[in-house]
């Protein structure tokens, strides 16, 4: 039974490596919705990879582009949207996410996030001497913000993508 609050969009939030893109794509397929990823939309629009945008325009420049993408994407209907890990930092993004869809926070420990992201160089905020410490700092700042916007918190620790998807579908069926 679709709830009144649910216009049919699912928005995924969480830190880098939480599985927003991976789980989001599978969820969209299973739920018959169109999948979008704000990071991919920004890259398609600019024709540049995210590390390049950070290099040329700084994090602030990227955040502006991200806010525009979130504004546009949250207007769409019947979608699953994987948001960039830092999208919740902007209160306008948080309001748009809450207003236009059902928000799912995928969480994991900083240690697990590190294991899932350490082989990939496409996350400029993790290109530091100590990416594990950086993930812990980001977790401390952002975990409350993810919880603030979330309708549902999913612990992804020690869960395969497929078992998470099954759990998520069950929860969504019950709650939405
Ligand atoms: N539940 C899980 N268990 C183990 N590995 C996972 C899980 N979810 C995702 N992964 C793996 O972790 C890596 C990062 O996942 P993904 O790119 O989906 O994260 P993300 O939340 O979209 O990150 P970002 O915010 O940087 O875009 C991928 O290699 C993915 O296969
Ligand atoms: O956590 C973050 O701030 C980021 C996460 C990624 O999804 C990208 O949006 C970018 O690398 C920044
Ligand atoms: Mg992603």
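-> sequence recovered:
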């Amino acid at each position: 039974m679709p709830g009144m609050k649910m216009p049919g969009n699912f928005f995924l939030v969480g830190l880098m490596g939480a599985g927003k893109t991976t789980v989001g794509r599978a969820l969209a397929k299973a739920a018959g919705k169109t999948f979008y990823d704000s990071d991919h939309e920004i890259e398609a629009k600019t024709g540049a990879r995210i590390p390049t945008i950070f290099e040329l325009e700084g994090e602030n420049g990227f955040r502006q582009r991200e806010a525009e993408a979130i504004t546009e994407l949250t207007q769409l209907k019947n979608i699953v949207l994987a948001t960039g890990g830092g999208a919740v930092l902007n209160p306008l993004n948080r309001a748009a996410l809450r207003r236009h869809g059902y928000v799912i926070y995928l969480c994991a420990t900083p240690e697990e996030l590190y294991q899932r992201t350490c082989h990939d160089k496409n996350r400029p905020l993790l290109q530091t001497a100590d990416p594990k410490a950086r993930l812990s700092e980001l977790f401390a700042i952002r975990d409350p913000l993810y919880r603030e916007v979330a309708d549902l918190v999913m612990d992804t620790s020690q869960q395969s993508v497929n078992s998470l998807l099954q759990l998520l579908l069950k929860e969504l069926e019950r709650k939405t």
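The chain has one domain: 10-166.
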